[in-house]
Amino acid sequence: MAEKLVVHTGRSAVLSRDNVDTDQIIPSREMKTVGRKGLSDGLFAGWRYTDAQARIENPDFVLNRPEQVGTTVLITGKNFGCGSSREHAAWALKEYGIRVIIAESFGEIFHGNCIRNGILPITLPTDDMDSLRSLAGPVEVTVDLVAQSIACANLPNWERQFDISAFAKRLLTEGLDPISMTLTSKDEIEAFFEKDAAQRPWVYSAA
Amino acid sequence: MAHTLFDKLWQAHRVCGSEGGADLLAIDRLLLHERTGGVALKSLAENGYSVRDPSRVIAIMDHIVSFKSGRGRNDARSPGGAAFITETRQMANAAGIHLIDTDSHDQGIVHVTAPEKGIVLPGFSIVCPDSHTCSLGALGALAWGIGSSEAEHVMATGVLRATKPPQMRVRVEGALPEGCSAKDIALYMISTYGAGGGQRSAIEFCGTTVEQLSIEGRLTLCNMAVEFAAFSALIAPDEKTLDYVRERVDPNSDLDTAMAYWRTLNTDTDAAFDHEIIIDATQITPQISWGTSPEQSCAVNQRVPSDASSQALSYMGLEPSQAISGLAIEGAFIGSCTNGRLSDLKSAARILQGRRVAPGVRAVCVPGSQSVRREAEALGIDKIFVAAGFEWGEPGCAMCFYAGGETFPPRARVVSSTNRNFEGRQGPGVRTHITNPAVVAASAVAGSICAPSDLPARSKELA
Ligand code: SF4
Asked: Does A168 share its domain with A190?
């Protein structure tokens, strides 16, 4: 079950790049065990460290700046989380402490992975993103998922609404387990398979 | 009302509606690999669920397996990788699902093995915690990549909750010029419309060019759809598709009924799409990427754009307006779920026959599956590669992505038949140029990026 997210206020960091792929978020070599834990150390390893093996930090990487300690909100570009489907990207971000990602668009699979892991992906139009990205240094961003609104302490009179699917909203605000939610439809599922087996028998003979 | 093929497949798998306009969709097949599938099996067991129907789940070892010839059962290509193999094996066996193990006759990259072994058939819904699952839509299947938690969900419930995506039709018309392949259509499309051009849509590829493509070419085209930000890719099954699957269907199936159903799988004439793109295939020339996103691609004989992103240029070690053809390379790789099939190996072998890889270039070919390897070896293709100076590997993902372990050195310029040129994709600092297998072969011979048509003629004694 994922951690709930209803209202969140946190420090933001700007990662001003488009097409940040999941290999950048968590390089494959940082996925060291069959599991979901222990990944935050490898988050953005290619950028965050000048020597990833020795874990020597790159002082120029945004999350390494002293004022960015405790960042929970990531502000970025287009198509964030494209590429590999690895859910490890969402697990690494979550473990690092990221709860909200604001982008112009997201990789489709990554977007779903965020929602299943208690991270809220928010899509805003380019001009709003430009306003956020132009802020120098970390700022405080507040997100109200129930009201579907976002505000920023350093942008007076700037408050925006964002879209989110009803299911994602419920999953995040209530911290639900999608499997048990689905199993409430067990009867419909079994009835479907019974009917389908008669109509498409070739699907039911094992590969 | 007129429906698209995607509408029909969605409807055929729709169990019931769910809140917020989502649907529960029945999943006909779930594929797992040791990299992202093992963790789904582990989490399933930890959460106390069992697999609802093990006959629908197939685990395949491909991502971490060693590609060295004569590899052992647990040999991985990255440090610590053996644990992914042994743990996935043990959990797959415990869950009672079908396992295509490292030493299986059927082993291969999941997206190469699934069509060739009849694991995916037209009209199936098929998912895998791997983004290139969209490849399988080439057979007229509803195929898309998911996360590990969703894979766990499919195992526990038999269904997935999904919201129907927008739909896009990509119509490709006209004869592809000599030397061009499905890979070039994909790179041309992505560089023209951008890496986000697919707009999270379910894409249906159609048009005379797509009809002319072999099944293998169609798999390549659909493979690249995720690099276009598509939800999935789809090609309506035609007689070519049915011929391909006929010999791969379980012999106990009622083939006539299945064939009759598969022939109904197409888009109605008046069906509406949310987006439509038309591509003139006659304008396409062999393509290659110059930057760090597949959208940063152009014709092999073009120059880097004058306004190219400085981030991409500095990673790739290039200058604005620099010619791409002629850039010295240190590596060449042929393989992957994009271009690791027999037709790909044949197209490279045609270039390599009677030629040698240039000194200083490490060239590697890894067939996409054991079947591909066997067929290639039966045709003597392995000998052509080896005689040219290529390493000939054991099937798997191999150098398509870096997982630690051996790869090309930092800053090495590599031409690759894979699908991603992201920073670090093939190794820290490795500068990947993605292109079709014939361009990879020609460049390996020239020692620099080179279109096959620009290669000097073979010397007499070698030809
Ligand atoms: S060959 Fe490459 S892109 Fe294809 S499944 Fe393997 S790692 Fe992924």
From this structure: no
